Records
---
Amino acid sequence: MKLSERLGAVEAEAAAEKPRPRPKPAAAAARHPAPAPERAERPERPERPERPERPERPERPERPAREDTAAEDGPKARATRRTNAGWEGTKKRVRDLVLADLGPKLTGAKRVGSELEKEVKAALDRALQREDVRISPAERSKFVAEVLSDILGYGPLDAPLADPTVTEIMCNAYNQIWVERRGVIEPTDLAFTDDSQYRQVIDKIVSAVGRRVDESSPMVDARLPDGSRVNAIIPPLALNGPTLTIRKFADDPYTVADLINFGSMTMDLALFLEACVRGKLNVLVSGGTGTGKTTTLNVLSSFIPERERIVTIEDAAELQLQQPHVVRLESRPANSEGRGEVRIRDLVRNALRMRPDRIVVGEVRGGEALDMLQAMNTGHAGSITTVHANTSRDALARLETMVLMAGFDLPVRAIREQIASAINVIVQLERASDGVRRVVSVEEVQGLEGDIILLQQLFRHVPRVSVDGRQVGEIEAAGLRPKFLDQLVHSGVDLPASVFHAPVRPREVRPKTRAVPSVAELIARSGGPVTGGPR
Ligand SMILES: Nc1ncnc2c1ncn2[C@@H]1O[C@H](COP(=O)(O)OP(=O)(O)OP(=O)(O)O)[C@@H](O)[C@H]1O
Ligand SMILES: [Mg+2]
């Protein structure tokens, strides 16, 4: 089905499901205060995290603080309870008992919904009896849920992982957990019990995908079972302690209609991009980190006709194509002996032998740029990829550098010729300070003139700020028709000419902000005209 048909209901949907991201009011930010002072002081971290030893039978635990505050159950009361040392201390003791009880059974097994969960619950019951934790039934179920989540899940990360409004989770320390909601980063009052629990969770995440993080390999990329992308980096590389970043995998990936609703692109721009993809132009999506490159790539790939064979190549598989004929390839880092690495570049070369109609590369970062350009120039038109760059011009410069990384001593002009004939369109993305990600420029690569690659802007974002300080700019056509329009028509793709019409708006009458002195005034201020100079 074509975009124009699919988008019929876009306007109506606009207000309902996924609200347009808005700047977060100051009051809302205040609801997420910075970590409590007692948490801000980090306890001394052990030299190296060790396996929890089987703890000695602990003293009778303190009663969780909940009992004092049972009457109130507001956010303040909950916060008090969470930070209460008795509650956390008891939890830690019980958790350590269960861990010691079950030991190796906990590693490598399925997390939830399995025999293991039953075993953990039984071990937890035993531990609770031994600990003699006196808590009310309501309190007990909460306690059990938290300990279970610590053991079977990811402890305090379970809540933001389950929260669909959270798109990114960033842990800077065991007690500093930040999340991103609607493009805006905010602190939370979540915390691991201590450094060792934090490290256990990091180890659990990376070991589930057969990797490890320790002093010999202190940074690692991994994935959660739901597909979320994880990066962990620990000392000595991370100076402030272990740092964990999770880009949540959207169960329901954004569609073109969502991006239009968010104001990330307009209907006209969407129609234009759909025509480019259907017309087999090569598209490069460019943007800084987290600007929505992968999301846009996913949306652009959704325009590829169903009958075509698509090969996707990524470092961490994030794309979610809906077409029936998709082959997904993922690169692989070297193993602990430094062997077995399969780079994006190897996969691009391999893909050429897989009879692809389209090659979609998650991001070009190195020598694969050369293979990609050659593929685009030699019968694999219609390929799409992304690059990390702040402007379209920078994207071209980066491509050039990356081609050189392939290891051939190619003259710059030859590289530029390759780029100019391979890439047709560059879509530039930006993340504004209010958290909204949007297309800020679409440029056509027109060719090479002398040594310069010619770019022509077709769409641009015109920034405007409303009286109440909101960014209300619009994406507009620049009023120019691209040179490749004929190519699109030849490939049978129809595109209304109105898409390229620049909006006509009345000339703005701007109030004078600063009076500019006239020439006569300037002369008068400087003490009159200069006389007696050379004639
Ligand atoms: N147009 C958009 N509007 C709102 N949120 C968006 C938009 N595009 C992407 N996002 C959200 O922004 C986050 C980052 O998106 P995405 O992974 O596509 O960025 P990226 O540029 O590929 O990041 P990276 O450089 O880390 O690979 C995701 O959580 C995604 O859901
Ligand atoms: Mg990405």
---
Amino acid sequence: MESKEVKKSVRDSYTKVAKRSSSCCGEESKSVDVSKALGYSLDELSSIPDEANMGLGCGNPTAIASLKEGEVVLDLGSGGGLDCFLASQKVGDTGKVIGVDMTPDMIDLARDNAEKNSFTNVEFRLGEIENLPAADNSIDVIISNCVINLSPEKQRVFNEAFRVLKQGGRMIISDIVLLKPLSEAIRNNKKLLAACVSGAELKNKYLEMIENAGFEDIQVKQKSDNITQEVEREKEDGEPEVKLVIDGVTIDIEDINEDKEDILNLGKSIQSITVIANKN
Ligand SMILES: C[S@@+](CC[C@H](N)C(=O)[O-])C[C@H]1O[C@@H](n2cnc3c(N)ncnc32)[C@H](O)[C@@H]1O
């Protein structure tokens, strides 16, 4: 897929997710389960607006970011604002959190969440992470949760992250990476793109891009291989139907023109990691 087509497909998918969440019918309990599995505590989740947690992450970057009072934090691909609201409590009134997202409906949802819940030190900006709407050397900490895999220009994202960070700043990102290359059919599947699989980069290449941007002390802090889940349900005709759930997105494997076994083995090709890197 061309870069423009990837972005349109991603934006369309997350527009639907944002609209579902801001309507009455978001699957709140499922989102809480996904987030608990990623290490968010119930205390953390109850301290933020319910609508901000849509179960879209693949790690818990703020948990290991050691955020301090007064710091300025930038969240790449902030969605409904989950990690921004957690960060906002840690940096306090003297600090500030900026969320950037390219999907207008996500920005509306996040702003609504902030306003209704009186978060005054959080701001959401519409923009692309390949072209960050932030000044050079203005940010103490960059966080991101399950977003950079969706970008067709990952090197540019890391270059931008490096540009806006202050000297001495740090980046803590959770993301999906590949342990082995994916087939053409899987890479071109739009549902698997939105599920944070098709756009993912090989782990070594991903870490190399962070280094190429100028970051140092790069460490993979956490990794998890249990991202996919098979679900078997019974169809109306009594036949079992196998579905694959990846990062909270349910994939009907019949929709993918690929060997069923290859799809069910997808979990062995992907990993969720949390990386820390510094701008020294
Ligand atoms: C998987 S969701 C994660 C949302 C949030 N980080 C969370 O954990 O709840 C991905 C988000 O990244 C945004 N996004 C994807 N690609 C982007 C890009 N190139 N620039 C800005 N935002 C992007 C999407 O609109 C969506 O809101």
